[in-house]
Amino acid sequence: MKTVANKQIVVGADGGGVDLKNHVVAWLESEGWEVLDLGCKVRGEENSPMFQRVGFKVGAKISEGEYEKGLIFCGTGMGIHIAASRCPHVHAAVIESVAAAQRCATGNGCNIMSMGGNYVAPATAIECVKAFLGHNLGDTFENFPGFYEYHKLARDEIEAFDYEAYKANGFQPIKLGDVKLERPKK
Hints:
Number of helices: 7
Number of domains: 2
Largest sheet: 5 strands, parallel
CATH topology of the largest domain: Ribose 5-phosphate Isomerase B, Chain: A
CATH superfamily of the largest domain: Sugar-phosphate isomerase, RpiB/LacA/LacB
CATH class of the largest domain: Alpha Beta
Oligomer: single chain
């Protein structure tokens, strides 16, 4: 698997996200990252791939265990995120702030981060990428009793979710366990 620790990442964008993606890729490469780009390369590209097709491609690299994390970009970040999320084992988030980028990694264990070229400024995108790639599930919440366990259980239940089993269970969640979450004392 190509990993964040080895500075390897998969990215993709459609025509609406390509400028932001190119800005992020230029920064990543200047920092020594190996980047696999599966989408549109330049604005106005002939036969530019549709957002969902790029989302499927990047999502598949995560699903197949080829890459640990990915970055995707379209005009809003939403459509490409929906497509990538259809791939098994993909946990994607649309973000527009550094705090959201960090939390999608620390609280949700996301493996794909999506940004909208129409909404995220290039400098903000770089800071978001740093936050996303620099954190893992539970990071920065070590003093929050049960935080990691609670969010790990949530991620595990999302990963194991089977709609037909949920439906057969009267639309009640099938619990893999319980974790008590306590707010840290001030």
